[in-house]
Design a protein that fits this description.
6-stranded parallel β-sheet, 404 residues, 3-stranded antiparallel β-sheet
Length: 404
């Protein structure tokens, strides 16, 4: 096989982030994923920037496109009974079903695990939502920004008491798919060995908490509460991002982490320091005077080009790298050598850059096999080709707004 998951069939009812990212991992590794969307209530990412040529449109969002590569797409308005019956006709084909609504949605539609597994007893189903399928807050809707706040990330990511500098984006949306994809692979292996399907309740709350395990364990053991402290570290000093010399009128920064006294002396040499402050000669002294240390290092770094300084520090054994913006990343030599960027010819946006795979398997390398589908792109292929509907049936379903 050229793909690890070749022959695996997935019905993707999910929307926005966690569910689609999860199924994208599987699709890029060979799974045949049919993405089910509603034209009456489009996925919110379809109307989110960035848009091709900065022109908004339901099929022009690279945000949506990046999370839905290698999939086929159909439209069904699941609020209509006819649409739900069509979805059920696809279930016997599917090995996996994925959904990411609040718990009541699939139950109200008669598309919950109990109903779908009656159509295919060995079905694997993943439900992922904010706070799981049970508990007092199970029906609370939300997005990753809200979950990042609830999970505690917003509290610890500021620069000090009274500050709140949340992590970028819908933070937990980028954590949870790693767990849900792994759970689905484990379920596939379990079914291979036993012939049995299973239901996976993946609460994004529980997934997110895994990334705070050290802080939670420390609190349980000592009663200490992790406080916001910017870039400070318990292991490295200095440890932070320091402004370098501006380039072409733009700010440039470099991240530096010093682990021991040897690296500290090497950093001073690379920076061409003309004097020293005895407070910083030892690690204990540097940790005891972090504010003064940051000011001292910042003044030295300000005279240097970020990329040239990176080469000097790396050669001296000091961990350092420029703080890159999006343009820098697209021009990064290492990513270029990986062949990281994939250009796919989207049906409406045309040639567009997509992020490559996050891993490389030697025997079964994955690939971004096709661009994300425009809304309803594969309706005819699925409804006529797979389900055997006639042109008249499809036309009537369109008139009844069952499909788009």
């Amino acid at each position: 096989m050229s793909f690890a998951l070749e022959g695996v069939h997935i019905l993707d009812f999910a929307w926005v982030g966690v569910g689609p990212i999860t199924t994208k991992y599987l699709a890029d590794n060979g799974a045949d994923v049919i993405r089910i969307e509603s034209a009456a209530r489009p996925d919110v990412l379809r109307i989110g920037p960035p848009w091709k040529d900065a022109q908004p449109g339901i099929n022009r969002s690279q945000f949506f496109a990046s999370y839905n590569t290698s999939k086929r797409g159909i439209t069904l308005d699941l609020s209509k009974p006819q649409a739900r019956e069509i979805a059920k006709r696809l279930v016997p084909w599917a090995d996996i079903a994925v959904e990411s609504f609040t718990p009541k949605a699939m139950r109200n539609w008669g598309l919950d695990y109990e109903q779908l597994s009656a159509l295919r007893p060995d079905l694997i189903m993943l439900s992922t939502c904010m706070q799981g399928q049970t508990g007092p807050n199970a029906l609370y809707p939300g997005f990753g920004q809200l979950m990042a706040a609830l999970s505690g990330f917003y509290y610890i990511s500021g620069y000090g008491p009274g500050s709140c500098a949340p992590p970028y984006g819908a933070y937990t949306d980028f954590i949870a798919p790693r767990f849900s994809a792994s759970a689905l692979l484990a379920a596939l292996d379990y079914r291979r060995r036993t012939g049995k399907g299973q239901y996976i309740d993946m609460a994004q709350y529980e997934a997110a908490m895994q990334n705070l395990a050290p802080a939670l364990i420390d609190y349980a053991a000592s009663g200490r509460i992790l406080e916001p402290r910017g870039n400070r570290s318990d292991r490295y000093a200095p440890h932070g991002a320091y402004r370098a010399a501006d380039e072409d009128g733009a700010e440039r920064w470099i991240a530096i982490a010093v682990e021991n006294d040897e690296q500290w002396r090497a950093m001073l040499t690379a920076l061409g320091a003309r004097g020293r402050d005895s407070r910083f000669d030892s690690a204990l002294g540097r940790f005891a005077n972090t504010d003064a240390l940051d000011e001292f290092v910042g003044q030295l770094v300000r005279e240097h080009n970020a990329y040239e300084l990176t080469e000097k520090l790396q050669a001296a054994g000091v961990a350092a790298y420029p703080v890159q913006n999006c343009v820098d990343i697209h021009n990064d030599d290492n990513l270029e050598s990986f062949g990281f960027w994939h250009w796919l010819d989207h049906k409406e946006m045309g040639p567009s850059p997509y992020e490559g795979l996050s891993h490389r398997m030697s025997r079964t390398p994955g690939d971004l096999r096709r661009p994300a589908p425009i809304l309803g792109e594969h309706n005819d292929e699925i409804f006529r080709g797979m389900l055997g509907m006639s042109a008249d049936e499809i036309e009537q379903l369109k008139k009844d707004s069952v499909i788009f």
